[in-house]
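Here comes an entry:

___
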Amino acid sequence: MASGRTAKGAITQSDEPSKSRRDWTARARGTAMDAIRYSQFVALMKRALPIAAAAILAAVIVYSLLPRQPEKITITAERMGTIDNDLAMIKPRLTGTDNQGNPFVITAEVAVQDPKHVHRGKMKGIEADTTTQDGHWMNATASQGFFDMDSGLLKLRNGVSIYSDNGDELHTASVDIDMKKGLFHGPGVVTGHGPFGTLRADRFDADRTKQLIHLIGHVQMNFSTAGDGKK
């Protein structure tokens, strides 16, 4: 221990040991505080992590239950222009799939966009083709029509003709087609012919997927005789 004398000869002690004790006490106190903070952090994580994991799991479950947006309909055109100050597409081509994944294509000579709804438009010189996964196809043509890209509804007007791969052919004034569901509704008189013979009815409904046609009202059918083609 270092010592010294004052002017009067009294002996005084150095303060180094006391500083050392204070430093050790401060370090010990800091270490204790760090330990407390760490313990608090660990306790917090023990509560927070399970909550976070539960929240993530709930989000995954909710997302898995949300309805998926069907594949969007895409549209291309040979060129753009205007008709009576409305946006028009020359030779537009719309492609998409129905609810069962069957592809369809709609083409037209010209399409004029609805000024109040960008996904709707009037069309002229329309042809619609659709194919099922088992290879069956149907084709519809009309001089005028209307299409809604959001609902997939195609309205054909003025001289509508419908053809199928089995040789059936229908003619009527107007047809509403749900392209997503493959359903046809003809509200007016329909005539047709095919390998079976000829038909006439006041109206009709058809299901493209099931390959069924339902004739309604004053139905007349003339069947061909098997083998010789006579009625």
